[in-house]
Protein: Voltage-dependent N-type calcium channel subunit alpha-1B
Organism: Homo sapiens
Amino acid sequence: MVRFGDELGGRYGGPGGGERARGGGAGGAGGPGPGGLQPGQRVLYKQSIAQRARTMALYNPIPVKQNCFTVNRSLFVFSEDNVVRKYAKRITEWPPFEYMILATIIANCIVLALEQHLPDGDKTPMSERLDDTEPYFIGIFCFEAGIKIIALGFVFHKGSYLRNGWNVMDFVVVLTGILATAGTDFDLRTLRAVRVLRPLKLVSGIPSLQVVLKSIMKAMVPLLQIGLLLFFAILMFAIIGLEFYMGKFHKACFPNSTDAEPVGDFPCGKEAPARLCEGDTECREYWPGPNFGITNFDNILFAILTVFQCITMEGWTDILYNTNDAAGNTWNWLYFIPLIIIGSFFMLNLVLGVLSGEFAKERERVENRRAFLKLRRQQQIERELNGYLEWIFKAEEVMLAEEDRNAEEKSPLDVLKRAATKKSRNDLIHAEEGEDRFADLCAVGSPFARASLKSGKTESSSYFRRKEKMFRFFIRRMVKAQSFYWVVLCVVALNTLCVAMVHYNQPRRLTTTL
C-alpha cells in the first residue's frame, strides 16, 4: 500500500506521469535528478491537495479566536488548569461536602418550622435565638454557591453554574436570603417570605426528588388538557343545574306570627314532592340560601362553584338533600349520580393517572439509561472476553491439527528407533544372571538410548494429550449445538410431565414406572 509520501507510479505511466499530465516533458524513473526527477519537478502523492487540507484541518485544526465571554475561564480569572479551580471542583465533587450541605438545609428547615410570631411584631425568646442562626446558614449557602461558581463558571460558557435549573433556584434562594438579612431595617417581608423556598434546595441534592419534580413539570401540558376537559364537564352540568334549580334555594319555613329568622337552614317547597312546612310555619321566599347564599344555581358562576363542590365530594350530600327539599327527590338522582361518576370518579382520577404516568415514564427513562450504560459496559467486557476465548480455542485447534499432521509425517526410521528402544528396555529388565550387565547399561546409558527413551515417553504422553484435547473439543461442540439444547429442553419437559402425573392412590405400576 502506498503511503502518504510515496510516489505513485501508474496514473499516467511511471513515477513522473503526473508532471507529464501537467505539461512536464520528462519524468520517468530514469530521468535526471534524484529519484529520476528533473530539478524543480513535483511528485504526485496518493492524496490530493484538497484531501491533505482536510486531513490537516481535522488533525491540526485552526485555533478559533476566543474572547473573554467564550473562553472557559471561571469569573474571567480561573482557567481550567488553575489550582484554585481544580481544588474547587474536588470540593464540590467530594461526597462529605454534599452531605454537609444537605444536613444544613434540613437544619434550616427545622429552624424555620420552630419560629413563632406574635402580634405587633413580637417574638418569643426561642424565635429570637433562632433568628441569630440565620447569618450562619446564609454564610454556608453563600460558600456553596461561591465554590460552585469558581468550579463551574458563572453563566457564559457551557456547563456553567447558571446553565443548570437547580442551581438557578439555589442562587435565587441565596440572593433573597442575603437581601433579607442585610436589609433588616427595611420592610422586606416579601424577601423574608422567600425563605420558604429553601426546602426546595433538597431537590437539587437528592436525585429521586428531582425525578418527582421533573415528572410534575413534564405533566403540566397533559394536566392543562385534562383541566380544560374537566372545565367543560363542569360547565355542562352547571348549565343543566341552572335550567332546573334556578331560584329553588331561596325559600324557607318562616313563622306565621313574625318575620323572624327561618325555622332551620333548609329550603322548602309549596307543593309536593318538595319538603312542606309543618306546624305554625309557612314557606316563603327571600331567604339567602344554604351556606349564606353561596350554594345555589341562580347564575352560571354560582352554578360552577356548586358543581365543583360536588365533584370534590366535600359536602355534596348536603347539596343533594337541599335539592330534594326544594324540588323533591323524584328525579334529582338523574343529575347528581352522573355528576359524581363523570366528574369525580372519572375526571379527577384522570389527573392522578396523568401524574402517575409521567412519573412512571420519567423513572423508566432514568432506569433505562442506567441499565443501558451498565449493559453497554457489560457487553463490551463480554465481547473482549469472548474474543480472547475464541482466539484461544482456535489456537488450540490449530496446534492440535499441527501435532496430528506432524505425527502422520513421522518417518519409518522413527518407528524402527522406537521399536529398538523398547526392545533394549525389555532386554535390560529381563536380563538373566551371568550376562554382561555393564555392557547393557552402557548401551542404555548412551546419549542415543536416553534420547530414544525420552522421545518415546514424550510421544506417548503427547498422543494421550491430543486425544484428550480432541475429546474436549468434541464435547464443547456438542454442548454448544442447537440440537443439544432442544434435547435438554425435551428432557426437562418430560421430567415435568412425569412429576405432574403423580397423584393420590395411583397404581403400583405407575409408581414403578415413574
Summary: Confidence is low (pLDDT under 50) at residues 1-37, 39-47, 432-449. The domain at 83-205 is CATH 1.20.120.350 (Four Helix Bundle (Hemerythrin (Met), subunit A)).
